[in-house]
Amino acid sequence: MRIVEAPRLGECYWEEKLENGLTIRVVPKPGFARKYAFIAVDYGSIDTSFTLNGARVRTPDGVAHYLEHKMFDLKDGDATERFAAGGASPNAFTSYDMTAYYFSCTDRFEENFHTLLDMIAEPWFTEASVNKERDIIGQEIRMYEDSPDSKLYENLFSAMFRHHPVRVPIAGTVESIAEITAETLNDCFRTFYAPSNMMLCVVGDVEPEQIAAWTEARLRRECAPRPVRDYGPKETLDCERHEIREAMEVSMPMFAIGFRCAVPEGGRESMKREIVGDLACELLAGESSALYQSLYEKNLIDSDFSAGFECVKGAGLISFSGDSQSPELVRQAILAECGRMLEQGLDEAAFRRLKKSAMGRRIRDLDSFESICVRMCTNFFDGVDYYDFPSVYEEISLEDVRAFLEETVREERLVLSIIEPKEQN
Q1: Superfamily (CATH) of domain 2-229
Q2: Given the DSSP bridges, would you call strands 99-105 and 23-28 parallel, antiparallel or unpaired?
Q3: Beta strand 23-28 with 11-17: parallel, antiparallel or unpaired?
Q4: Is pTM, for the whole model, over 0.70?
Q5: Measured on CA atoms in the order 104, 108, 112, 117, is the torsion positive or negative?
Q6: Between the N and C ends of the chain, which has fewer C-beta atoms within 10 Å?
Q7: Three-class SS of residue 103?
């Protein structure tokens, strides 16, 4: 294994790429009792259309999430029960562009690590067990449909994007999962769970060489070609629909204001765009901004107000969300304040202060084993090293932020999503 040093951060990791294409990274934490293992698959809910070996494939919406559920089925039992017997805390998630399986423990790490490897080595489920899971996932989908927080952003994405699959809920729909069979899940496992399309990250007081040896012995699947993903026809950044409303059981209106922005295909520029987007949001509407103070004093927002940059492959936006009796006034205020800032000039001192603060938060994230693993894998799939973030922050200038705001915060790129209270009889 080779060691990669990050002297400015006082951090390092050990890395090895196995013959089957799997990349392993081990972040040493000497003296820590807790250990954390995380396997990520470069496969999410948006990966429903792709080309493999010259053949075009379209799968039902929700397959990635469905497969995540079924990967806990083992030939000799249930992975959750094996983790519990080993004293581990396991979990998994499916996002728009990644699926991950992980656990943490203080004892019996080798035993729990083998369980994690067994989960992703080979699927083990029957048509009967897949059909049984359909009801469970259907209930989960209905729960999300009744969640104002989920609907707020699902509606935002559906209005903002014409073709990109981010407009479809991660779990799919009750109708789409009815089309998913054991054969569908097995085919998608073979396509996306190839070792070359995954990454393993382990954090803790462990021996890197031992981690590699255990993995190589347990995960014997061969290298396979990676699919070519298709996220639909190229879209312009303007939005055809600028407002979407839905009535639900809420006490006051909830809103999300999104502005579409261009995103790089990957590499160092993808990390830079994320940081620039977050800094732009902080400078425009962060807690220390004049806009935030004004909106708060006028009772147009409350302490739940947040702003930030979001991106998946082929789709990006900045969003501002919270609760407000007058979401339309918040939208007007954001547009007006951005126009004022661009006309009068951005505050250099505020920019430097916010950049220093954001850099500090990233450094503090290095104390979180989960954060290390998530960012390590996400950045790896984007083609950039997580530990490069200090030098990327140094590259970013006030002009980068100004250009981003001028390019992005425009009415034609804006969508306002509102969840409003149902009328009372």
Answers
A1: Metalloenzyme, LuxS/M16 peptidase-like (3.30.830.10)
A2: unpaired
A3: antiparallel
A4: yes
A5: positive
A6: C
A7: strand
What does the longest C-alpha to C-alpha distance in the chain come to?
68
* Residue 211 token pair: 């981690």
Distance (Å, whole) CA 377 – CA 246: 36
DSSP state of 165: G
Tens digit of pLDDT for each residue in 87-97? 999 999 999 99
Is residue 108 within 8 Å of residue 86, measured between CB atoms? yes
Active-site entry in 68, 133, 154, 337: 68
Angle subtended by helix axes 127-145 and 63-70, to nearest 10 = 120
The gap from C-alpha 415 to its chain's centroid, in whole angstroms, comes to 21
**Is 407 considered catalytic here?**
no
Q: Average pLDDT of 277-287?
A: 97
- pLDDT digits 0-9 by tens, 356-395: 999 999 999 999 999 999 999 999 999 999 999 999 999 9
Could you give the CA distance from residue 204 to residue 29 in angstroms, rounded to a whole number? Answer: 5
C-beta atoms surrounding 177 within 10 Å: 22
Residues of the chain with CATH 3.30.830.10: 2-229, 243-421
Instruction: Please state, in angstroms and rounded to a whole number, the distance separating the CA atoms of residues 44 and 413.
Output: 25
| DSSP structure string for 322-389 | EE-S-HHHHHHHHHHHHHHHHHH---HHHHHHHHHHHHHHHHHGGG-HHHHHHHHHHHHHHTS-GGGH
Q: Residue length, the chain?
A: 425
The CATH number of the domain covering residues in 243-421: 3.30.830.10
Q: Which of 330, 354, 145 is nearest to 255 (CA)?
A: 330
